[in-house]
Amino acid sequence: MSEWLRVDAQGRARCWWAGEAADSVLYHDDEWGRPVVDDRRLLEKLSLEGFQSGLSWMTILRKRENFRRAFAGFDPATVAQFDEADVARLLGDAGIVRHRGKIEATINNAQRCGELIDEFGSLARYIWAFEPAGDDDEAVSAVPLPSQTAASVRLSKDLKRRGWRFVGPTTVYAFMQAMGLVNDHIDGCEWRAVCQAERLAFVRP
């Protein structure tokens, strides 16, 4: 068995990074790599990937419900209206990562998200236009997995051009992996075929 796979007591093989913690396994099995079209979930993931910078994803995942409460479920229109009083409230919220730059970036990005929705009709329609055309552009299922790709560099540059913050190519690639724009479950992982089937059936916005 590959060192990049972890097999549980039931004999089910998963990507090594899922580990053994129940919340991490659930995230791997039920979320990571499944195509997402919901604007709130897309904004949430971009925001949380920004908060993760310098931290582990499990730290953020275990605070996700707190983030959702603090940021109004990541509704773009609502978060875009947050003001300095909201920033102060968030800086006092021990349930999230209290980093002024990341908090202000999330509010800014919600405002920029509104501009994308006005222009494209939805954040999803904009984001999915950056889906790689084929495996040649992405090291799909290759290990070790890349930290960024040509597609994530393109999306990162365009988001930055539009005024988004904390959206470097590595952050953006982690977002693309999680939201199903690529299928980076590695060969041998039981969920690779599951996500591939969902991607094939997925109707792009």
Which tags fit this structure?
single chain, 205 residues, mainly alpha, 11 helices, globular
Question: Would you kindly provide a written description of the structure presented here, covering whatever features stand out?
Answer:
The protein is globular. The chain is 53% helix and 3% strand. The protein has a two-stranded antiparallel ribbon with strand order 1-2. It is built from 11 helices and 2 strands, in the order ββααααααααααα. The model has no long low-confidence stretch (mean pLDDT 94). Strand 1 (5-7) and strand 2 (13-15) form a beta hairpin. The termini are far apart. Helix 2 (39-52) runs antiparallel to helix 7 and helix 9 (150-161) packs across helix 10 (169-178). It is mainly α and 205 residues long.
The number of distinct β-strands equals: 2
Q: Report the sheet with the most strands, covering strand number, pairing sense and barrel closure.
A: 2 strands, antiparallel
Characterize the overall form: globular
> Helix share of residues?
40-55%
Cα gyration radius (Å): 17 Å
Number of helices: 11
Strand content: under 5%
Average pLDDT taken over every residue: 94
Q: Order of strands in the sheet with the most strands?
A: 1-2
Low-confidence stretches: none
SSE series: EEHHHHHHHHHHH
Span between N and C termini? 38 Å
* Structural class determined from secondary elements: mainly alpha
